[in-house]
Amino acid sequence: MTDRETGTSKGYPFCVYQDVSVTDSVCASLSGLKVSGKILTVRRANDGQTQPNPEQESVLSHPA
Fold first, then answer.
1. Which residue of 9, 35, 56, 61 is surrounded by the most CB atoms within 10 Å?
2. Residue 59 to residue 32: CA distance in whole angstroms
3. More confident site: 44 or 47
4. Angle at CA of residue 20, ends 25 and 34, nearest 5°
5. Which DSSP category does 28 fall into?
């Protein structure tokens, strides 16, 4: 998301899905996608919890 006047990033957008498996699928599909020359990083937000470190993200993105 960018500011219309300056073109700079506005920050973080959020999407809410009822089904957690859909959330994980969307995150895995969009993360790494190149948009306007920038690579997206997409992660699941946690209510009031810290984000997992990169080592944990690969486990969450690719369930066994």
1. 61
2. 16
3. 44
4. 30
5. H
